[in-house]
Amino acid sequence: MAVMEGMIPVLVAFCGGVLGAALGGLNAFILCGLASIVGTLLTMVTGDATFNQIVTWGPFLGPHVAFAGGVVAAAYAARMGKLCSGRNVLVALFGFNDPSILAVGGMFGALGYLMKWGLDAIPDIGSAAWTNTIALSIVITTAIGRWAFGRTGILGRVPQDRSRWRLSRDEAWQPWPSGPFQVFLVGVGVSLPVAYSVQALPASMGLFFGFGALSLLFFQFGAKIPVILHIALSAEFLTLATGHVGWGLVFGVLAAFLTEWLACVFLIHGDTHVDPPAMSLVVIFTMYPVCRVIGVFSLTGLMPYLFAFIICITGVYLLYRLQKVS
Predict the structure, then answer these.
(1) Residue 156, Cα to own-chain centre: how many angstroms?
(2) What are phi and psi of 80, to 5 degrees?
(3) CB hemisphere CA count around 232 (13 angstroms)
(4) What count of other Cβ atoms lies within 10 Å of the Cβ of residue 79?
(5) d(Cα 15, Cα 61) in Å, to the nearest integer?
(6) What is the pLDDT of residues 134-167, one digit of tens each?
(7) Nearest alpha-carbon partner for 199 in 246, 250, 131, 231
């Protein structure tokens, strides 16, 4: 009986992966964003975080389950010739009337759940979690999906007449390229108000991630909006963890630039989707305990804002130089 009860979450995760494939990975992620908003509001009102633990981040709508399952199912559908690109995570795969596509989503949803369970067993660094295991599960699961169903390898294939770093409309990780100053302005424009709000309302952690994920509904309908969920979550987490708006700004802006660089390395020249926002969250959430142990967060006052300024200048310069590479 105990074994069967232990298997139920895995079976639920399989169902979550099936749902992610049926709806499409992006649509499943939008539902996760809506659940995060509802769950965070419930937590703020009642003090009970069960909804977020079970629904938002659990074995059904958790992005490591439903989103990742939908992403890998899209890669499989493309390999089977039913989808024009394995990077297309907007399409609801239920319309292909192929149970094998949904089954692949289910299997990788269950894999994502088990992956997170295994990663959670790794000891903390100090008293802080060593990384964001949900984001890392997404990265690993979708990388396995590319290895299994893609043809371009983990780093993709860059045509001989092009640079890995110079973006064009058909190569950007979003359907439109972003210049360095636009990345900088969005990074600051999201991070600072989110950090300010979370410092005033600590129980709102997850609310702005939810807004960012839910905003992808506009993306689904073709609006040229920025993807901001990773920026918002980084700013939320670091502000809550350090109690300082400046550190939320630092890591939110860093997440914005990291995502652009990681997309160039892993996504835009590949034939399946691997998620740059999830990758940047892995970096940010791994940096936090390391910086905490070595005492970086003892720097307060204006110092975090100085760091944010340096990151902005450096990020704009490096992204500009890289995008100018012939």
Answers:
(1) 19
(2) -85, 0
(3) 20
(4) 18
(5) 10
(6) 999 999 999 999 999 999 888 888 877 676 776 6
(7) 246
Q: Which tokens is 171 given?
A: 């190569």
Which structural domain range is residue 7 located in? 2-323
Beta bridge partners of 86: 272
Query: In this predicted model, what pLDDT tens digit does every residue of 222-271 receive, in sequence order?
Result: 888 999 999 999 999 999 999 999 999 999 999 999 999 999 889 888 89
Report the number of distinct structural domains present in the chain: 1
Q: How confident is the model at residue 109 (pLDDT cuts 50, 70, 90)?
A: very high
Q: Tokens representing 85?
A: 């690109």
The long-range contacts involving 282-286, CB below 8 angstroms and separated by at least 24 positions, are 282/131, 282/132, 282/135, 282/136, 282/139, 283/258, 284/132, 284/230, 284/234, 284/237, 284/238, 284/251, 284/254, 284/255, 284/258, 285/129, 285/131, 285/132, 285/135, 285/237, 286/130, 286/131, 286/132
**Cα–Cα distance, 130 to 122 (Å, whole number):** 8
- The secondary structure of residue 125, as a DSSP letter, is B
What is the tens place of the pLDDT at every residue in 174-224? Answer: 767 678 899 999 999 999 999 999 999 999 999 999 999 999 999 888 888
Q: Average per-residue pLDDT in the chain?
A: 92
Helix (H, G, I), strand (E, B) or coil at 84: coil
Dist. CA 295–CA 267, nearest whole Å? 34
Query: How far lies 76's CA from each of 112, 241, 317, in Å?
Result: 16, 39, 38
CA distance 172 to 43: 37
CB 125 within 8 A of CB 241: no
In this predicted structure, what is the pLDDT of residue 166?
Answer: 64
